[in-house]
């Protein structure tokens, strides 16, 4: 292993040590809660989200013709990415009844409108590319 | 009868995942984590300033930019991290190697990746719940987000060191032929997801986009055209703030002077356009009017170059007192604000008076001020 890799690894370990050192003042409740949330994220991803994505892709390969799949994958990646990234406003958590300047939009309504528009666009593109592909196949 | 056969996962997986996709997404993810880490450390230094650091008062919008970038980048990172995890997900099921030494190295590598994945997800989840002010946990958000940031970034640096040969090979190797559903599709779609997420949320910091950012946490509206982070009721400041007997005390070296709101309004007034920039990422500029803090300090004979403790009437929540470092006290733009956007300061914005200074995190722009006292 090169000196650069060793040095980079050492910097990484030192940074981890700074993080752990910064936790020295945490009491037991804080530490337990932190570990639960650290592990919870991995469990939620590895045991729920990733298998669910796999399932959707498996269904996609069975249902969709090959030519429609690129559009469907792009559709899923963008829609899924945006949905999960904005889950904090979509799940109706947080905010305060005495503060109307926070979480002050109809988020789910907007998400439904955007989702409908997005998937309609994806379906049109998938149909169009599929039709063009068939025409090319016939022409060949 | 047609036998039911499970489709082969590898058909699609092999082209959508693997080192090629992982390395390219990793470059973007590394840059995003780097921005979040540096801007986060900067925010931490502004809130807990060590003795060796003098935070500059200019540019006035510096914190607005750094913290807006911190939160916007964090949000945009969510699709990137999900795609990156997906690109390496099949590796989770790889069988461990034979032989004690190889097995040990394998376990160490897997352990470091587990720490990286756990801490990376933790940072994005805790950050995105903080911006909606939802705290369903027992730990202190700020202290834990800070500590885990070091662990996440350190794990990322360690991961790059371990994977460097794989990354180099994946980035340098020739592109295999693609029928349209390959690495490029996934990386491009992921970047599109990040851009879309940014456009739909960033209006809370980038004011011109606030009407487009329909999934943003705030639409930028509020009393006097400015959002509120913590209301007077939440801070338990309503009663004392509306008390007609309210006085502001300014103290230096045993000398004290006290002022009612009318007394403050009778002093020379200044106007400044300054942003409120919250640690939660939202920000907006406003026109403030009030008395320059340095003028007030001169009235009690305080020299320039001293820090000032600012005390609030609030009886609940953190930051009931803050320290205004000397350079902010001396800056003529730092006001004890009495008015906002042309009218009397609203209760939720800090009535009867509040601090507004250039380049300061919102939590340190203390509201409902009752006392200013120089620190020796």
From TrEMBL, chain A:
It comes from the Bacteria. Keywords: Membrane, Transmembrane, Transmembrane helix. The keyword Membrane applies. The chain crosses the membrane at residues 7-23, 35-59, 71-91, 107-128. This is DUF3995 domain-containing protein. The lineage of its organism: Bacteria, Bacillati, Actinomycetota, Actinomycetes, Propionibacteriales.
UniProtKB/TrEMBL annotation, chain B:
Keywords: Membrane, Transmembrane, Transmembrane helix. SUPFAM superfamilies: Oxidoreductase molybdopterin-binding domain. The keyword Metal-binding does not apply. Residues 244-374 form the Oxidoreductase molybdopterin-binding domain. Coiled coil: none annotated. The keyword Transport does not apply. The chain crosses the membrane at residues 25-45, 65-86, 107-131, 143-162. Pfam families: Oxidored_molyb. This is Molybdopterin-dependent oxidoreductase. It comes from Aeromicrobium halocynthiae. The lineage of its organism: Bacteria, Bacillati, Actinomycetota, Actinomycetes, Propionibacteriales.
């Amino acid at each position: 292993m090169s000196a650069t890799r060793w040095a980079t690894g050492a910097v990484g370990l030192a940074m981890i040590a700074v993080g752990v050192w910064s936790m020295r003042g945490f009491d037991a409740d804080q530490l337990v809660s932190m570990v639960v949330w650290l592990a919870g994220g991995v469990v939620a991803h590895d045991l729920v989200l990733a298998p669910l994505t796999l399932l959707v892709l498996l269904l996609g390969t069975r249902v969709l013709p090959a030519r429609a799949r690129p559009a469907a994958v792009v559709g899923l990646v963008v829609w899924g990415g945006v949905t999960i990234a904005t889950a904090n406003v979509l799940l109706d958590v947080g905010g305060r009844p005495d503060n109307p300047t926070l979480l002050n939009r109809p988020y789910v309504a907007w998400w439904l409108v955007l989702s409908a528009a997005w998937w309609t666009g994806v379906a049109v593109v998938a149909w169009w590319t599929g039709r063009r592909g068939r025409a090319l196949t016939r022409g060949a | 009868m047609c036998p039911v056969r499970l489709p082969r996962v590898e058909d699609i997986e092999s082209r959508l995942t693997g080192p090629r996709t992982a390395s390219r997404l990793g470059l973007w993810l590394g840059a995003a984590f780097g921005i979040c880490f540096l801007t986060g450390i900067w925010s931490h230094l502004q809130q807990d300033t060590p003795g060796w650091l003098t935070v500059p008062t200019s540019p006035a919008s510096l914190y607005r930019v750094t913290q807006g970038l911190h939160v916007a980048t964090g949000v945009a990172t969510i699709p990137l991290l999900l795609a990156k995890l997906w690109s390496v997900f099949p590796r989770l099921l790889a069988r461990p190697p034979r032989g004690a030494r190889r097995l040990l190295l394998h376990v160490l590598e897997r352990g470091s990746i587990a720490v990286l994945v756990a801490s990376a997800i933790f940072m994005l989840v805790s950050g995105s719940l903080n911006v909606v002010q939802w705290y369903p946990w027992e730990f202190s958000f700020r202290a834990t987000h800070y500590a885990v940031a070091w662990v996440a970034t350190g794990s990322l640096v360690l991961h790059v060191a371990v994977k460097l040969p794989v990354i180099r090979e994946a980035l340098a190797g020739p592109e295999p032929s693609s029928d349209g559903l390959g690495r490029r599709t996934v990386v491009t779609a992921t970047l599109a997801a990040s851009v879309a997420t940014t456009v739909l949320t960033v209006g809370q910091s980038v004011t011109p986009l606030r009407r487009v950012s329909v999934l943003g946490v705030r639409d930028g509206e509020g009393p006097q055209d400015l959002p509120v982070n913590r209301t007077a009721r939440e801070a338990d400041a309503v009663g004392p703030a509306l008390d007609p007997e309210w006085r502001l005390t300014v103290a230096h070296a045993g000398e004290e002077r006290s002022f009612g709101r009318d007394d403050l309004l009778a002093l020379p007034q200044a106007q400044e356009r300054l942003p409120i920039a919250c640690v939660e990422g939202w920000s907006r500029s406003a026109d403030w009017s009030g008395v320059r803090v340095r003028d007030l300090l001169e009235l009690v004979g305080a020299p320039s170059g001293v820090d000032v403790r600012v005390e609030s009437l609030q009886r609940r929540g953190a930051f009931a007192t803050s320290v205004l470092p000397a350079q902010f006290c001396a800056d003529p733009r730092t006001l004890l604000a009495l008015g906002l956007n042309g009218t009397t300061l609203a209760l939720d914005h800090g009535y009867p008076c509040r601090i507004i200074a250039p380049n300061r995190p919102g939590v340190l722009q203390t509201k409902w001020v009752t006392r200013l006292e120089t620190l020796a």
